[in-house]
Amino acid sequence: MKPDAGAGSSAPLLAVQRVTLRYVSEGRTVTATENVSFDIRQGDRLVLLGPSGCGKSSLLKAIGGYLWPESGSIRLRGTPVRAPGPDRMMVFQEFDQLLPWKTVLGNVVFALESSGRWHGQAARARAAQAIASVKLGDFGDAYPHMLSGGMKQRVAIARGMAMEPEILLMDEPFAALDALTRVAMQDELLQLCNETRFTVVFVTHSIQEAIRIGSRILLLSPHPGRVKGEVTSDGKDRVHPSGQRLSEIIHESLFATAPGPQEAV
Ligand SMILES: Nc1ncnc2c1ncn2[C@@H]1O[C@H](COP(=O)(O)OP(=O)(O)OP(=O)(O)O)[C@@H](O)[C@H]1O
User: Fold this and answer.
1) Which of 35, 166, 209, 215 has the smallest number of CB atoms closer than 10 Å to its CB?
2) Ligand 1 close to Cβ of residue 51 (< 6 A)
3) Are residues 115 and 158 in the same domain?
4) What is the ipTM of this complex?
């Protein structure tokens, strides 16, 4: 992560402007998002929150460069996103993101060497450091099938971070974990974010997870996804002066027909 990115400057790291995403297949058109706009700054933990089918994953794929907007634009440091790149690493929900024939260390080294930015001993040292940072320092020689689902997710996060992306894109990365592991992983991610100040876009449909993980929470309407509002979070489901908890404000906004909070509360 480049330390100067966005910090102290007025230009956003990522600018999503009036993005409409559509899928067309066999004569059928599905609108995933409509006119969605938001900015991301260095160090933001932006959560995309909304009901199933509102286009959260599609937005993440578009930021990743895997899906092109039908209209609108996505710019990273002012440059249009047109393809995937090592500046935007994705972590998915699935546990099978790792190469099964490579060790934990080998998986991370492979990604680093494939990027062409690190080789040999430099790649190995960097990979070992990233693996240690997700508390898997003793598992560098283990193969993916020897790890739990949570451990595999940690390797995927370590691999993503080791690549030093501008933004880490996380698509419900903890959804398939049991409740206790999920909370532990959320804590770990937050600790890593505090240590490294990396920028995250995190997709979830859990209000509680959004409040814990996000510094900003973008609220999307049901299908097709439009921005209903945005709230800020300090990690706690705090009570607002209105007497409502943040989770209640979010819930009402997501499911109300009226526009949600446009100002950060
Ligand atoms: N490859 C695809 N082809 C056609 N339609 C798709 C495709 N992927 C997604 N869609 C449709 O686009 C809409 C948004 O899907 P998307 O997966 O982005 O939503 P989501 O908010 O991430 O949902 P969930 O929380 O259930 O994962 C849905 O109506 C979905 O059916």
Assistant:
1) 35
2) no
3) yes
4) 0.97
